[in-house]
Amino acid sequence: MRKIVIGDVQGCLDELKGLLEKIDFVSSSDQLIFLGDLVNRGPKSLEVLEYLYSMDHCVVNTLGNHDLHLIALAMTDRPYREKDQSLWPILNSKNKTGLIEWLRHQPIMHEEPALESIMVHAGIHPSWDILQARSMAREIESLLQSNNASSVLSEMYSDDSWSSDLEGASRVNSIINSFTRMRFLDQYGVCNFTEKNAPKDNDDSLMPWFMNQEMKIKDMNIFFGHWSTLGDFRFENVFCLDAGCVWGGEMIAIDLNQPLEKIKFQSFISK
C-alpha cells in the first residue's frame, strides 16, 4: 500500500483531484494522509469533506486549526464571522452531522512507524520527545471525541504557549496550539502566533520551532503544513508541504514508499 502525504487542501477540490490524478491514486490500494486544514478559504470546502468522507477507508487527516474552527462552529454557540463564509455550506448541509463527526474523530498526530514518519498540522513542540508527543495527541483526541468536546472547543481560542506548569484549559489550549498553530518560538521558547512570514523575512529574535536547540525528535521524519509562506521546504528530517495552493501556489504530495521527492500540482486560483 502506498502512503501518500498531502499538504493543506483548504477547500481546493479541483486541485486535489488534479494532484491525485497526477500520482495515479487508487483508493483500493493507496492511503491518503492529509496534514490538516481540509477546509476554509477555498471555494469547495463542503465538496472536499464529502469527497474524502466517501473514501473514509483510505483517508486520514491530522486536524488543523481551520478544521477545529469548523468543528467549534458546529458544536458550540460561537458566532459566525464574515471570513467564515466558505464554511457556511458545510454548516447548512444536510450531511453536516456526519461530516463533523467524521472530522472530529480524526487524529491530531498520525504516525507511520515502519516508515519512520510523523504527521501533524503545524508542528511538535521541540521540548517533547516522541512519547510525550503521543501522550499529548491522544489526550486532545480523547477530549475532542468526548461528550465534553463542546466545552473544550468553546475555550480553545487563546494564545497559550506550551509550558509544563500549565493546568486546566490553558494546558489543553497550549497543546492544541502547538500541534495546530505553532510557527515561531521566541528566545524564551514562547510561541509567537502572530508572525506568519518566512524565517528569512524575520530578525533573529524568532526561530522556527523545528530549528530550536531543544528539538528532541530527530530520528523520525516529521511532515507538517500550516506555513504557506515557508512553502516547499525541508530542514534536516522536517518537511513542510504547504505551498499555499489556496493563495495561488501549489498543492504538494509525498509518497512515503519512494525517495522523499515532492509531487506538485499548480493551483487554478489566481494570486
If you had to describe this structure to a student in words, what would you say it looks like?
It is a single chain. The protein has 271 residues and is of the alpha/beta class. It has a single domain (2-266), classed as Purple Acid Phosphatase, chain A, domain 2 (4-Layer Sandwich), CATH 3.60.21. It is 28% helix and 18% strand. It is built from 8 helices and 14 strands. The strands form 3 sheets. Strands 1, 2, 3, 12, 13 and 14 form a 6-stranded mixed sheet that branches. Strands 4-5-9-11-10 form a 5-stranded mixed sheet, with no helix packed on it. Strands 7-6-8 form a 3-stranded antiparallel sheet, with no helix packed on it. Strand 2, helix 2 (45-53) and strand 3 form a beta-alpha-beta unit.
Question: Could you list some keywords that capture this structure?
Answer:
271 residues; alpha/beta; Purple Acid Phosphatase, chain A, domain 2; six-stranded mixed sheet; five-stranded mixed sheet; 8 helices; 18% strand
- What is the molecular shape? globular
Please give the largest β-sheet. 6 strands, mixed
Give the SSE string: EHEHEHHHEEHHHEEEEEEEEE
The computed structural class is alpha/beta
CATH superfamily: Metallo-dependent phosphatases
**Count of beta strands:** 14
Mean pLDDT: 95
Beta-strand percent range: 15-25%
* Count of the separate structural domains: 1
Topology of helices and strands:
Elements: E1 2-6, H1 13-22, E2 30-34, H2 45-53, E3 59-61, H3 65-75, H4 88-91, H5 96-104, E4 110-112, E5 117-119, H6 130-144, H7 149-154, H8 168-180, E6 184-186, E7 191-192, E8 206-208, E9 221-224, E10 233-235, E11 238-240, E12 242-243, E13 250-255, E14 262-266
Parallel strand pairs: 1-2, 2-3, 5-9, 9-11
Antiparallel strand pairs: 1-13, 4-5, 6-7, 6-8, 10-11, 12-13, 13-14
